[in-house]
UniProtKB/TrEMBL annotation:
Gene3D superfamilies: Aspartate Aminotransferase, domain 1, EGF-like, alliinase, Type I PLP-dependent aspartate aminotransferase-like (Major domain). Residues 25-381 form the Alliinase C-terminal domain. Belongs to the alliinase family. Its cofactor is pyridoxal 5'-phosphate. GO terms for molecular function: carbon-sulfur lyase activity; transaminase activity. Pfam families: Alliinase_C. Keywords: Aminotransferase, Pyridoxal phosphate, Signal, Transferase. One of its GO terms (biological process) is amino acid metabolic process. This is Alliinase C-terminal domain-containing protein. It comes from Salix dunnii.
């Protein structure tokens, strides 16, 4: 994520300073590279070796509803939810996906009536995760259609409401907002883990989506899972994954099983960095403290405030410390993303999330080096620059 804007030809110390100033810090994507440090110290505890003859068949568990789900991975998912206490797994079907991104599409397919005269509306309260509208409408499906902000949704007929909690981009802990019947809720709980927000109860919704991308930091493994109450919905989701990719990489599922096992072990037998959740919760706390100090110093921005809650997993009270900073610029700066870009900080404009470009979303999950350059630069940005934009 780090690129040099202008390669340095000299090696004097002032060149080193300007080199740091010119470094482009890309915090547009939520790439969870901050977790690398934990997994580096975990060493072989999270390593697997797969011989060439293994995992060759399409099938993982031919007789079960989700026939491409590796039983070992399913077992670790249940153990992890039990130990963290963030979701009910009892009487649920587990459907594995190539990231929760594939499961989102599987859910839309599963919940849309096949014989409807018009596509079912898909809504989420703004600011909503920027990928939802893009994924929903990319194939111009006849089954479902993006219908925007759930708060202003008033159309008659069936709808699907996405409830992301804590929310991407603003970290808000959410419940459904559409106040009428005929809707089906999908809970995207990618960030309902103790490093981001207090675990106050085990989520007990009909359809819940999770991903390793934001829980363990293994975004490149492309593994997500859905906990689904209704058998028919789970079957249709399995059908979608079957039609779409004929299952999900076994190599990735076996690696995910090993990683979840290492997370569980880190909770039971913490090392010098503590459990994965101790490590990442402390890092998030420290980063939010540094970011709030930089924002105060700059005087140009504001951040959302969160009230504390008691976390049953970490046994202490703290406020949500989201994976993204939802930064609001002063009124006179109309284009916050452009302003930050002129300072070599790449972020995502509020317009992608259904709100004003006065907001930007900034990833809090980058490597230490980039994060520190970012907060340092933010704290010294002067208004002089902003008025030029
Ligand atoms: N849902 C939300 C709310 C997310 O923020 C993300 C990742 N940015 C995803 C889903 C997608 O996760 P995955 O990498 O598992 O596809």
């Amino acid at each position: 994520a780090t690129q040099r804007a202008r390669p340095s030809m000299h090696s004097s110390s002032s060149t080193v300073d300007s080199d740091v100033r010119d470094t482009i810090i890309n915090l547009d994507h939520g790439d969870p590279t901050m977790y690398e440090r934990f997994w580096q110290q975990a060493g072989d505890k999270s390593t697997i070796v797969i011989p060439g003859w293994q995992s060759m068949s399409y099938f993982s568990d031919a007789g079960s509803l989700c026939w491409f789900l590796e039983p070992e991975f399913a077992k670790e998912i249940i153990r992890l939810h039990k130990i963290v206490g963030n979701a009910v797994t009892k009487d649920r079907y587990i459907v594995v996906g190539t990231g929760s991104t594939q499961l989102y599409q599987a859910v839309l397919y599963a919940l849309s009536p096949q014989d409807a005269v018009e596509p079912v509306s898909v809504v989420s309260a703004a600011p909503y995760y920027s990928s939802y509208p893009l994924i929903t409408d990319c194939l111009k499906s006849g089954l479902y259609k993006w219908a925007g902000d759930a708060r202003s949704f008033s159309k008659e007929g069936p709808f699907i409401e996405l409830v992301t909690s804590p929310n991407n981009p603003d970290g808000d802990v959410r419940q459904s907002v559409v106040n009428k019947s005929g809707g089906i809720l999908v809970h995207d709980l990618a960030y309902y883990w103790p490093q981001y927000t207090p675990i106050v109860s085990a989520a007990d919704h009909d359809i819940m989506l999770f991903t390793v991308s934001k829980s363990t930091g293994h975004a490149g493994m492309r593994i997500g899972w859905a906990l689904v109450k209704d058998e028919e919905v789970a079957k249709k989701m399995v059908k979608f994954v079957e039609l779409n990719t004929i299952g999900v990489s076994k190599d990735s599922q076996l690696r995910a099983a090993k990683v979840l096992q290492a997370v569980i072990n880190s909770c039971q037998y913490p090392t010098s960095l503590g459990s994965l959740f101790d490590f990442s919760a402390h890092l998030m706390e420290e980063r939010w403290r540094l970011l709030r100090a930089a924002v105060r110093q700059s005087g140009l921005f504001s951040l959302p405030e969160f009230s504390p809650g008691s976390c049953s997993f970490l046994n202490r009270s703290f406020a949500t410390q989201p994976a993204f900073a939802w930064l609001k610029c002063l009124e006179l700066m109309k284009d916050c993303e452009g302003f930050l870009r002129s300072n070599n900080i790449l972020t995502r404009s509020g317009k992608h999330f259904g709100v004003s470009p006065q907001y930007v979303r900034i990833s809090m999950l980058d490597r230490d080096e980039n994060f520190h350059i970012f907060v340092e630069r933010l704290s010294t940005i002067h208004l002089r620059h902003s008025i030029q934009v």
